[in-house]
Amino acid sequence: MKFTLDWLHDHLETDATLDIICDTLNRIGLEVEEVIDPASKLAGFEVAEIVSTEQHPDADRLKICTVKSGQGEQKLVCGAPNARAGLKGILANEGAVIPANGMVLGKAKIRGVESRGMMCSLAELELSEDHDGIIELSENAVIGTPAAEALGNNGFAIDPVIEIAITPNRPDCLGVRGIARDLAAAGLGTLKSDTVQAASSDFESDIKIKVATPDCPVFAGRVIRGLKNGASPDWLSARLQAIGQRRINTLVDITNYISFDRGRPLHVYDVSRLSGTVTARAGQAGEKFMALDEESYEIDENDCVIADDKSVLGFGGVKGGLESGANEATTEVLVESAWFEPIAIANTGRRHGIDSDARYRFERGVDPQSVLPGLDQAVQMITQLCGGEVSSLIQAGDVPDNQQEIAFDPHRVKSLTGIDLTEDNIEDILLRLGFEVTRQKEKWQVKAPTWRPDVHGSADLVEEVTRIYGLDNVPSVPLPSDADITQAIQTQEQTRIALARRIMAGSGLTEAVTWSFIAEAVALKFGGHPALKLANPISSELSNMRPSLLPGLLQAAGRNVARGLSDFGLFEVGQVFTDAIPGGQETVVAALRYGHVKPRDWSGPAEPLNLFKIKADALTLLTAYGVQTESLQVLRDTPDWYHPGQSGVICRDPRTPLARFGALHPALLKDFDLDGPVMVCEIFPMAIPLPKKKPSRSKPVLSLSPYQAVRRDFAFEVAADLPADKLMKAARGADKKLISNVALFDAFTGSAEGAGALGEGMKSLAIEVTLSPMEATLTDAEIEAAADKIIQAVEKATGGKLRR
Amino acid sequence: MADPATDPASLENEFLAAIENASTLAELEEVRLAALGKKGRVSELLKSLGGMTAEERQVQGPLINGLKLSLSQALDNRKSSLETEALNARLAGETEDVTLPVQPTGLSEGRLHPVSQVTEEIVTIFADMGFSVAEGPDVETDFHNFTALNIPESHPARQMHDTFYFEENEDGERLLLRTHTSPVQIRTMEAGDPPFRFIAPGRTYRCDSDQTHTPMFHQVEGLVIDKDTHLGHLKWVLETFLSTFFEVDGVVLRLRPSYFPFTEPSMEVDVQCARAGNEIRIGEGSDWMEILGCGMVHPNVLTNVGIDPVVYQGFAFGMGIDRLAMLKYGMPDLRAFFDADLRWLRHYGFSALNMPALQRGLSVDEGV
């Protein structure tokens, strides 16, 4: 919402400066977005008259003008085609700064002739784009008058323009008078009394108006005939221009003006284009009309239209039609002042994509009581500016009664805001805002003004009171500490998620935050739910909810490789979407490593990445969650995006994967602009059962052996495809009490020759077993017996043989 | 004339010279064996004491024992100096170029994203004020995102939200991506009973993308519902939070009336700040910067979740986590948050052990 200071002064009697007005607007909730004050740049400019001109001796197009200003006469060189004796314009004195280019005007010699000062064009003063010569003021302009004042008197838009952001609850401030009312209530002056008078009628019109839809409960109009439409007077043009409105013709300009002056949209119809009764009714499928913007709109049953007997004239309260609008030739009009249901207006506007000033106001709620005063104001302005005689009132339907009556306990002000105000203060503020108050002890009856459709209950009244009194007065009161802070503030799941970030970063990975949505094709490749597709994505690359964090990380890796980075690790902790319902999501952890574990350096060549690095990343996090890694299985059935031979699923129960890890399937590499290998893992923190609540934090008793531990090595020849895990588990299980650790220290295939030759399709796995006796130092015989048990257990479980 | 081969004084001279001349530990050992070994000459001499008369022994005993003691000491001294020489020689051969570079460890390489760090900072501060952390889904119903929050269909405020929608499902329902974290208020209140005191950080989505907007961003919501909670408490909570978060004493706030359908009264909060180039200093200067929106929870919202607004009341606030991060840590561009550029992440990210904590002023500056 834009308005000029001068316009505000039409409604508000105040001495307040522009700065104070702006501060107050901010303070009462009318946020100032921008203030443009053209006059602030016009210091050093004044009215001057060209007394005489002579031709420049050395330039055909230049004239030497003798100019008379408040400081006497001076000569300047001017190239404007309209420079002539008798012209009164705006002189820039020496030292003035030209607004358009920031140039400081000095004494100059132009082609050998001294020139002092400059006669200005509108463009040079940034008042319009107009470069056609210097400004011409009216003859009665007084020499020496400051430029701002003289330009204002001549209808140029030089008044400060204030733009405020109006929140959707304040339709009353979509008119200058409403803003003035709020400022007056805030103590910034007095609201002037209204100058609009009830219209009197000169004749009876035979035009009929009908309302035939609940979306338009009232439609009032008057016909004005014998008028002369044309260009608007300077003051009206200047105001509309200042707030960025196009000037059309006087009739249309008047309706626009009242829309901004009172927040009251109106419409004028050219009576010569109307046939029969003008009706507000529901649209019919198949109907069409050509709007003022020269767009054709297809109407349906949900639209509220204004139509005559022949055709649709426009969308009621949203947009008028081209055919029936007023133009320069119009001599007789029907002025429409109606009220429309906000929801109907919003729906029609949204459906047809029309953002008009009328829609903006009606959908937020125009004061229904403004139907007749708005019509009166239009009639008054039209007859003043265009002449003509006025018909009696034609009205269909009744003005809806929207008066809200609210039972109000004034103590609510203190209980909701902490501000102490007397009841008289509270009443005074409400009265200044136009509320009617009936005081009865603790039960006040408050009637809201009809221009405040947003006020429904006590809380709204409290807001009005505190807004005007000033939110600066809200005291700062410590929140009582009644919560039981000995309890955990975070849930265990939240703690797991937070821990994941610290653990992964501690492993040398860097956290990325990538979009929750990815391209459809990628989403489907990673098992995305087809219904999790946005109807209005911002681009096709961001259309589907991600089923996995990996695509985002892979794309990020591709971008980083393109930037020239190598050997890095990324991770993300975030939601993946599994089902098209609220809550069909899970928080997971994913990591990616690319390049080398270690780049080449003085100690040796680069160490290429292998999948055991990423397996370690996954296990590190699981260990941090307290998962006993000995009890885990590693299975092979990973999803399609993994390399089938170089990936695994870590689980306790095959139905519930705790993590997956492995090389990305090579076929996917090029989708992400990567040349492999890329190692990835996914960890599912929520799949790990939460530990049982224990009565204390005490840890289990630690029993350490006082006796010497014994280490023995064993090498087995087993089938090449035997999982090493199986052998190690068998060894560990040979004597659970005695064996404290089994470590795999050698694994190889091949070498079919020599003493240690392996059979075809076989491999060697060598383990070091630690025996930790609890009761006594082991004897040789006991060690032998344990070794035998281990060999038997391993051979039985694996079908392999001890290598001797 | 005494025999020099058995005369203690001659033997002493001879062996002291030999000890002095031994240049390795092995040579020294030979000398020791020759003198004090089982068959060593000094040992032989000691044995000879047994065959002497008492008078002879009285003379020779102290001489021979003195000899043994003297040689033992000389041997020990020489041994120790030879060992020192040997160690020095070994050390000289073991010199490494200590300027060779090392590979960084994971701890020095890994980084947390600023959004994660700042979210933890926020949680840490509010936890201290007794707020728990609530969560809710990203995919929401129209009811939870709008209607329950007093934003009915066709309400002009819906247009301010630029909502991402899914296609209608079989039930004729159109799910959407939450446009704010406020639906978490609704879900948490629906699932429990007052009083409530929680924050809800999370991802939010709006169909908007330009210099300062990304289609996904992070918000944190706060809600307190109790019997006597009022605007004054809200002001204190916000002052306490912002001072602690920005780590400055006494942040000055300006409350401006505003409008949100789910609060009444509603307000926007500005903080006092000074701008110097790219840097924004909170708590000083003469500028104001809008930082969050808040208000008293609208009675309709309480009614919508089955709470009696006559008995219970309270406040809600919401702010942008990304924006708080930018203001505190000086990132100029929101879009870079979601680009995963490692150079950016290494520069603006946080190390794994840099955990927010209140006992030392929330965050640790680089270099402690």
TrEMBL record, chain A:
Keyword presence, Transmembrane helix: no
Predominant location: cytoplasm
Gene Ontology cellular-component terms listed: phenylalanine-tRNA ligase complex
Cofactor(s) the protein requires to work: Mg(2+)
Cofactor note: Binds 2 magnesium ions per tetramer.
Compartment(s) of residence: Cytoplasm
EC number: 6.1.1.20
Catalytic activity, as annotated: tRNA(Phe) + L-phenylalanine + ATP = L-phenylalanyl-tRNA(Phe) + AMP + diphosphate + H(+)
Record-level GO BP terms: phenylalanyl-tRNA aminoacylation
Domain B5: 401-476
Protein origin, superkingdom: Bacteria
Annotated HAMAP family: Phe_tRNA_synth_beta1
Name by which UniProt lists this protein: Phenylalanine--tRNA ligase beta subunit
Organism of origin: PS1 clade bacterium
Automatic annotation (TrEMBL), chain B:
Residues noted as binding Mg(2+) in the record, renumbered to the chain: E264
Pfam families hit by this protein: Phe_tRNA-synt_N, tRNA-synt_2d
Enzyme class: ligase
Molecular functions (GO terms): ATP binding; magnesium ion binding; phenylalanine-tRNA ligase activity; tRNA binding
Compartments in which it is found: Cytoplasm
Catalytic reaction(s) noted: tRNA(Phe) + L-phenylalanine + ATP = L-phenylalanyl-tRNA(Phe) + AMP + diphosphate + H(+)
Cofactor remark from the record: Binds 2 magnesium ions per tetramer.
E.C. number(s) listed in UniProt: 6.1.1.20
Keywords: Aminoacyl-tRNA synthetase, ATP-binding, Cytoplasm, Ligase, Magnesium, Metal-binding, Nucleotide-binding, Protein biosynthesis
Cofactors required: Mg(2+)
Subunit details: Tetramer of two alpha and two beta subunits.
Alphabetized HAMAP family for the sequence: Phe_tRNA_synth_alpha1
Protein name as annotated: Phenylalanine--tRNA ligase alpha subunit
Organism expressing this protein natively: PS1 clade bacterium
Gene that this sequence comes from: pheS
